[in-house]
Design goal:
Shape: globular
Oligomer: single chain
Distance between the termini: 12 Å
Number of helices: 13
Strand order of the largest sheet: 3-2-1-4-5-6-7
CATH class of the largest domain: Alpha Beta
Number of strands: 13
CATH architecture of the largest domain: 3-Layer(aba) Sandwich
CATH superfamily of the largest domain: Glycogen Phosphorylase B
Amino acid sequence: MDESLRICILSKQFPPGVGGGETYAYELANGLGKRGHDVDVYTQWIDDPNETVETQDNVTVHRICKARKKLVTFETIYFSYKARKAVDFEEYDIVHGTLMPASTIAVTPFNDIDTPVVVTSHGTSIGETKAVALETPADYLLKFFFHPMNVVMDYFAGHDADKVIAISDHAYEQLTTSYGLDVADVEMIPHGVDTDWFYPRDEQHPAVDPDKTTLLYVGRLGARKGLRLGLQAVAQVNDPNLEFLIAGTGRHEERLRDLAAELGIENRIRFLGYVADEELPKLYSSADVFILPSRYEGFGLVLLEAVACGTPVIGVDAGGIPTAVQEDSGIVARRDVGSVARAITALCSDESTRRNLTEATLNDSTSLSWESAITKVERVYSKEVM
């Protein structure tokens, strides 16, 4: 794109917060900045209104309110209110809300902004609602009150935007069917991954036993991540040399430890706790197979991170996961214990298959990069500002 644009990015989620939404907003802003665009990011602060992250010189981060993580739907409405007060949207060539509806209802339901509005859907609130496990009173509130409110906000955010970017085939299908968006108004542009950071490392991570076959999970230890299914599947795999490493923290850790003991596999499972970002490429590279058995994911960025490090992956047929798992990078299993167990056995027992998957993926690593994704986003912008 030859012309430099003034771009407003609305993102309720942004580093130092951690997650797929935060990564998307950060990489998008920095990638656009590298290409000469002037980017203003409007976001929240977590602990300190002066907290900073490293960005391009022409990317400015404005923290306009404090995050209120325990009231997510009300936090969305509050962030939108603060954005309406803080931002003169008419100063920009493009306004991009990076997480629908959380970062987008400041501009979409009023439909009173002349500047073109682009929003990104990382998955829909319909999918989130279906994935809620009813284990606590808070889960009932999520499933029957807060997520339905988000479904309504999704609908207006999508219909009032000039263009919607879906990051997976699943999101595209739900937006154009369940939400009734015109296919001409929706563009499918998957996530990228930082291939300058996530690439195969030669050094073995100390948590990985080179004499074992290592299955790895990285992420939160919450119900939606499906680790109960993962443990049940490992219990069906007849391979005493298989070790399942679980990296991350969360309120379900004790339940998962208890389940591993009930299944009689506690000696094949290791909980690594929090693993720093700088350790992740080495950890991914050292593992033999990576698994993400979630009940629902908008995409599953950790799958791309593992693939970029040369590690074959196992995903399940849930949400946007199949978009993240290409056929030359791993297996998409049905989301049941037997299917996942067979996928683990197929990859963990066959070093030749793993090696072939790794070679095929690394030969096409440029398709995983954020550069590729941002080029497609620029094309969307150029059509909207013409």
